[in-house]
Design a protein that fits this description.
- By secondary structure, the chain is an alpha+beta fold.
- About 15% of the residues lie in helices and about 35% in strands.
- The protein contains five helices and twelve strands.
- Strands 2-1-7-8-12 form a five-stranded antiparallel beta sheet, with no helix packed on it. Strands 3-4-10-9-6 form a five-stranded mixed barrel.
- Strand 3 and strand 4 form a beta hairpin.
- It is globular.
- The two termini are about 20 Å apart.
Length: about 210
């Protein structure tokens, strides 16, 4: 799964990332966050109603009116997202990419859980695959890369920069990308402070190794 992310890059940095300028005004005043929790607002890029790619602000977590358990869904499994009724239409029509400077995952250890930070070794943002309905969104997950498996049995689906525009443009291609490895991607994976579990713990210490 993916239960915490960090978004600290400037709007200018994000525009440079994948060459999308539309919607700049909507994200230019978003403050950096080292510990974004479900229910918070996140920055994403999508294809808008005019067919153009645009930056936007979405709430992390979907809560359809018909769902029995009144708890927002924050992740969707990539293996079944194109078939599950809750996600199917959104995946075919409303895919998004979520740039993150890092994401956090919890490893089960004796006596509790230890949070880990996962980010690119070159410090560039990761592009996480997602979908949205109106102003709500979820992050798509997949089985972990080999080097992450010791932390958790799931990870967010990461889309390479060269696949970013095809992912947003074509649902059939997008589904293939969810399980593809980016062989050039090198990750840093290290334990961080347990305070990450508290959404109010939001400062650069979140990204520091312990």
């Amino acid at each position: 799964m993916c239960g915490r992310i960090a978004q600290i890059g400037s709007a200018e940095d994000l525009i440079e990332l994948i060459g999308v300028k539309e919607g700049y005004e909507s994200i230019s005043n978003m403050p950096p966050s080292y510990n974004v929790a479900p229910g918070n607002k996140i920055i994403a890029v999508l294809v808008n109603h005019t067919g153009n790619k645009s930056w936007t602000i979405l709430k992390w977590g979907m809560l359809p009116n018909w769902i029995k358990v009144k708890r927002p869904v924050i992740n969707a499994r990539g293996e079944t997202i194109a078939q599950k009724p809750m996600f199917r239409d959104a995946f075919h029509q409303r895919r998004i990419l979520i740039p993150v400077d890092a994401y956090y995952e919890w490893r089960l250890i004796e006596g509790g859980k230890q949070p880990y930070c996962i980010k690119r070794k070159d410090h560039a943002p990761l592009l996480l695959a997602g979908i949205h309905n109106d102003n709500e969104c979820v992050i798509i997950t997949r089985p972990p890369r080999q080097e992450i498996a010791f932390v958790h049995d799931r990870m967010p689906a990461i889309i390479s920069y060269k696949r970013a525009h095809p992912y947003l443009n074509n649902a059939d291609i997008a589904h293939q990308f969810l399980m593809m490895e980016d062989n050039g991607l090198e990750l840093d994976i290290y334990p961080v402070a347990k305070g990450i579990g508290n959404p109010t713990f939001n400062n650069p210490i979140c990204l520091e190794a312990i």
